[in-house]
């Protein structure tokens, strides 16, 4: 458990946060200017706050009350930036060895060959950064951080500078990092799709304050703590690949309920996280007939949360898990939706974006 308690005043902005980052991948989630990068710079030792404490058990990085501040080079932190910051005059192999050079003697470390295999960069070792794509450079940057034998990895919006195809390339490697490497990760993002794919825990920030913390399923279901409110609300389901069909669809088993998606390049039996955006869900009291939508999930209304405008969020418990639907208040009233009422969720197969589907662990 990494305990973080920080207070720091800038002109026109004050950071005042207290939270715990448990093992796994903890996402600092919020709008630009909410304090995310300030926090990880303090953890890295690049910023000394006015007062604060950062510690994991007896590993104390900062304690201003005791005038203790571990220098950055002794914190054993791997930092992955938005841009890869590789040395352009060195090959990929030399950049990776540079990270290993900083590993303390005798410290537990990932074997060089395993890191190469984990990130799929064996064919890049003799190239220089200028000959790599953006996604390839970020994979090398991840490897360099891992090979420094870190006790903690910091990632400051590492996908922000990449286009959608490059993000799709890199996300599976962060999933593997989360699931296969025993190093906690503090990850900065303002993308709901990234958070849904990667997070074990979310710390939601606004104006330098923590406004919510919990599992990815709980936090992304709460419009009050999302950067853009109800527009980013959605449910995170855990499902298993059941079968691939000749017409290009993949059938998932979501708690005993079939869920059809465009082809997912994972073998049967693979556990997936699937984010279903609330604005993509339609509700019906009776089971609809004659629709093109393949996914019709019966359920029971759990609760209804009116927003500030004409919209409302309806939480529906289904066999696949709890879904959210963003509909108008008028529609909710016309359907006479109240807790305990039976309803059906309708989800178009093609409405689930590829970036909202990822391999990984359970979300709650």
UniProtKB/TrEMBL annotation:
Coiled coil: none
Domain named ABC transporter: residues: 1-232
Chain ranges of the Mop domain: 290-356
Gene3D superfamilies: 2.40.50.100, P-loop containing nucleotide triphosphate hydrolases
Classification via Pfam families: ABC_tran, TOBE
GO molecular function, one term: ATP binding
InterPro entries, sorted: AAA+_ATPase, ABC_transporter-like_ATP-bd, ABC_transporter-like_CS, Mo/tungstate-bd_C_term_dom, ModC_ABC_ATP-bd, Molybdenum_import_ModC, Mop_domain, P-loop_NTPase
Cited SMART domains: AAA (SM00382)
Keywords: ATP-binding, Cell inner membrane, Cell membrane, Membrane, Molybdenum, Nucleotide-binding, Translocase, Transport
Record PANTHER family: ABC TRANSPORTER I FAMILY MEMBER 10
Record-given protein name: Molybdenum ABC transporter ATP-binding protein
Organism encoding this protein: Seohaeicola nanhaiensis
